[in-house]
Amino acid sequence: MLTPEGKISRYFFGANFSANELREGIRVAGKNENGSLIQRLALICYHYNPITGKYGRLVMSILRVSGVLTAVALVLFVAFTARSAAPNKR
């Protein structure tokens, strides 16, 4: 859904959605609003600049931080599991 100014207000996933969902989307877009918090977070993923062929800095920063946190979590999990599985040496 686009606002009268041409900004994305809401994105519907898939091809099938209810009449109530569509009605609410039209109402919110008509008021130049962006919908709920979750929908605004989902719209961050669509900040793509077709001229440069790149996503916005915010999107790339979120992806980088998420990747680093995932890697750290995996390393900590493996270290904790290996330490727990090691036999006690007394």
The biggest beta sheet is recorded as: 2 strands, antiparallel
Euclidean distance between termini CA atoms: 67 Å
The strand line-up of the biggest sheet is 1-2
What is the averaged pLDDT score? 80
Shape: elongated
> Strand portion, in percent?
under 5%
Q: From N to C, what is the helix and strand string?
A: HHEEH
Question: Rg from C-alpha positions?
Answer: 21 Å
Question: If helices are DSSP runs of H or I spanning 4 or more residues, what is the number of helices?
Answer: 3
Structural classification: mainly alpha
Multimeric status of the protein = single chain
Poorly predicted spans: none
Number of strands: 2
Helical residue percent band:
40-55%
Strand and helix map with partners:
Elements: H1 19-30, H2 37-43, E1 48-49, E2 54-55, H3 57-85
Antiparallel strand pairs: 1-2
In words, what does this structure look like?
The chain is mainly alpha-helical. It has 3 helices and 2 strands, in the order ααββα. The protein has helices at residues 19-30, 37-43, 57-85; strands at residues 48-49, 54-55. The chain is elongated. The model has no long low-confidence stretch (mean pLDDT 80).
